Amino acid sequence: MSQVAPRTGSSWFQRFLLPGFAFKAVIIGGGYATGRELAEFFLPSGPWGGLAGMVLAMLVWSVVAATTFLFARRTGARDYSSFFEALLGRGWVVFELGYFLFLVLILAVFGAAAGAIGHAALGLPPIAGTLALMAGIAIFAGYGNTAVEQLFKYVSFLLYGVYALFLVLALAGFGDRIATGFAIPAVSDGWALGGLTYAGYNIIGAVVILPVLRHMTSDRDAVVAGLVAGPLAMIPAIIFFVCMIAFYPQIGAEVLPSDYLLTQLGNPVFHLLFQLMIFSALLESGTGAVHAVNERIAKAWRVRRGTALGNGGRLVIAIALLVLCMLVADRFGLVTLIAKGYRALAYVFLAVYVLPLMTLGVFRLWRGGNPAPEAQ
C-alpha cells in the first residue's frame, strides 16, 4: 500500500472540496470543455432528455466517487495501482492496460482541442496550441502534488466564474431562443444509456485523483467529498448545455460548439476569456491524468530504490507521455476520437472498476474493519 499519510491540520477546503475540484479537473477536458462531448452524448435525446441524462450521470458520479474515496481510505490506497491491488488482486493489471489506452486517447484529444482553440481564438497554427498545452502539463506535473493541487484550486475558481458569466450573457443575448429550444417537440429516447455511458468513461477521474485524498481525516470526509464531487463536476456542464439549446438542433453538428456559441454572443473580449478558460481546463485535465501516472511510478520507485522520485524524473516521464500521446492528434480528428474511442473505454471501466467496486468493494466496506495504517 501507499505510504503517503494524510496531513494533520487539513483545511475543510482540502478535505471536502479539493477532491471534487480535482475530479472535475480530470474529466472536464475530455468531458465537456469544448461542448463536443455534450453534443455527442446528450443532444440526441433532445433538450429535456439530455438534461435527464446529465442528472443521471451526476448521481452516478457522486455515488461511485463516495464509494471510491471510502474504499481508498479504508485500504490506505493513494494511487490507482494500490487501489486496484486492494480491489482486484492480481487483476489490477487489467485496469493498468485500460488506463494506458485512456491516457493515449484523452491526451490526443486534448492536444487536438488545444490546437483548434489556438487557431480559432488567435489564428495560430494548430501545432502551436498543442505544444503550449504540452509545456504547461509537463511543468505542473513535474513539480508534484503541491503544484497540481494549486492548479486544481485556482483554475476551478476561473472556470466557475466564467461559466456563471457565460450564463448571464447567454440569457441576456438569446434567452428567448433557449426557451424556444426547450419547447421544441423532440424524441427523448436513449437518455439513460447516454447518461450511463458518459458517466462510465468519466468516472475514472475518481480513482485518478486519489493522491489528493491525503488530506482526509475520517470516513465522513471521504463520503461527503465523494457526494459533493458529482455536482461540482456537472454544474458547469449543465449550464453550457442549457445555453446550447438556443441553437438546437443544428449546434449538434459543430466540431467546437463552444466557439459557435461565443460567436453568436458577439463579445470578442469574453470570447477570448472563455477560450482561455477552456485551455486552462484542458491543462488541469491533462495534468491530473499525467500526475496519476507519476504517482504510480513514484510508488514503485520508492519501493524498489528506497528514495523519492525527484522533480526531474517526474518531468521526464511527463514529457515522454505527452510526446507519445499527443502525436496521435495529428492523425485523427477531434470528433472521431470522441465518438469512436470513448464509448469502448466506458464499457472497459464499467467492467474492471465500477462493477467490482459496487459489488466486492461495497461488501468489504459493509463487513467493516479499521482503516489501513496509512489512512489513520
Automatic annotation (TrEMBL):
Keyword entries, A-Z: Membrane, Transmembrane, Transmembrane helix
InterPro entries to which the protein is assigned, alphabetical: YkvI-like
TM helices/strands, residue ranges: 12-32, 52-72, 93-117, 123-143, 155-175, 195-213, 225-249, 269-294, 315-338, 344-366
UniProt-listed PANTHER family: CONSERVED MEMBRANE PROTEIN (PTHR37814), MEMBRANE PROTEIN (PTHR37814:SF1)
Full protein name: Membrane protein YkvI
Organism, scientific name: Sphingomonas alpina
Lineage of the species this protein comes from: Bacteria, Pseudomonadati, Pseudomonadota, Alphaproteobacteria, Sphingomonadales
